[in-house]
Amino acid sequence: MRLTLWYGAMVMVAGLCLVSITYVLFANALHNNITATTDRIYPRSTAKIVQDLGVAATPRFSDAQAAKREEAAIELADEFNRRQLAAETAAKQSLLTESAIALGLVAMLALAGGWLLAGRALRPLHHITATARTVADSTLHERIGLAGPDDELKELADTFDAMLARLDRAFSHQRRFVADASHELRTPLAVNRTLLEVAMNRPNASADLRELGGKLLIATTRHEQLLDGLLTLARSDQGLATRTPVDLADIAWHATESAADTVRTSLGPAAVNGDPVLLERVAHNLVQNALTYNQPDGWVAVETFQYQESAVLTVSNSGPVVPADLTEAIFEPFRRLGPRTASTGRFGLGLAIVRSVAVAHGGTATAFPREGGGLTVRVVLPTSSSRDRR
């Protein structure tokens, strides 16, 4: 649309310049030609008229008669000049009117032709843009596959397809690596947990062995949690392979079910299309983060609702004061903000996973410090209907 308007504006400017130049040349030529032609037939110089009429050279006229003839000659010359000016003005006005009509018709034809040509020329670009948006929203398996002449647009589309193919291969290798790493790392931890539990449950196990086994089980649990957080973060960073309808209200209810006595909820419908497992992890991390970094006898509030074309999940608490300039830092992996994450048995991955999952779903995750202490974390995701329209 903008290209067509630019094209029409250029045609209008060029047409106005052409009409202006034509008008100036026509006006000058009209005046000069009419003046030269009429002067050859009838001179308009007063002295010449008087001479031709013989006012000064003919002695048979009295002075009064000569004066009247001279006055008549002057009036005749003035009338001739007025009529010539009127004729020139009418001719120039006619030229302007007809030129304006012609310019308007040419402009409309130019806009119509520009619309058709721009639509035909930009159709491949629209196809490329739509494919790029689909790739950005869902999967790297889409390709443009632009058909047509071997021109610059086809070269651009082929280059884009080649880039997508390389990215698809890279992400496929990464997904396989994450899956293999998950299996290889979980297996020894599971074996260690089993061996420790068997050793601790032996009838002849000493108290020292049981105490050591308990400490090792705690360390193993922490390692499993760390591994689970890293794998979830890696999985969310890869994007979403599939999407299913999910209601954030149901997910938030399950996340607060175990702590229903200490969490206030206001759960309105908030439907999205996404990965249920990752979204459950988002709600769980937000609730656990709010409970962990809360004050004694504090409160936690969880709210879900739909605002325009967005589904919103908000978790607030009455925890310690968080400086406003550090609200972005809490979303960084392993970032610790002094006493807020110290001695809690956590690794600083919870909010990093929340933001990564939100971005993978095409949304945002932001934090706002509350006046008097505490934090509000808000996750905004596109609703199912808005994503379907796109």
UniProtKB/TrEMBL annotation:
The keyword Transmembrane is annotated on this UniProt entry: yes
GO molecular function, one term: kinase activity
Pfam families the record matches: HAMP, HATPase_c, HisKA
Domain Histidine kinase: 180-385
Record field: transmembrane: 6-26, 100-118
Record-linked SMART domains: HAMP (SM00304), HATPase_c (SM00387), HisKA (SM00388)
Gene3D superfamilies the UniProt entry points to: 1.10.287.130, 6.10.340.10, Histidine kinase-like ATPase, C-terminal domain (3.30.565.10)
Compartments where located: Cell membrane
EC number, as in UniProt: 2.7.13.3
Residues annotated as domain HAMP: 119-172
Record keywords: Kinase, Membrane, Phosphoprotein, Transferase, Transmembrane, Transmembrane helix, Two-component regulatory system
Reaction equation(s) it catalyzes: ATP + protein L-histidine = ADP + protein N-phospho-L-histidine
InterPro entries attached to this UniProt entry: HAMP_dom, HATPase_C_sf, HATPase_dom, His_kinase_dom, HisK_dim/P_dom, HisK_dim/P_sf, Sig_transdc_His_kin-like_C, TCS_sensor_his_kinase
Name of the protein in its database record: histidine kinase
Source species: Fodinicola feengrottensis
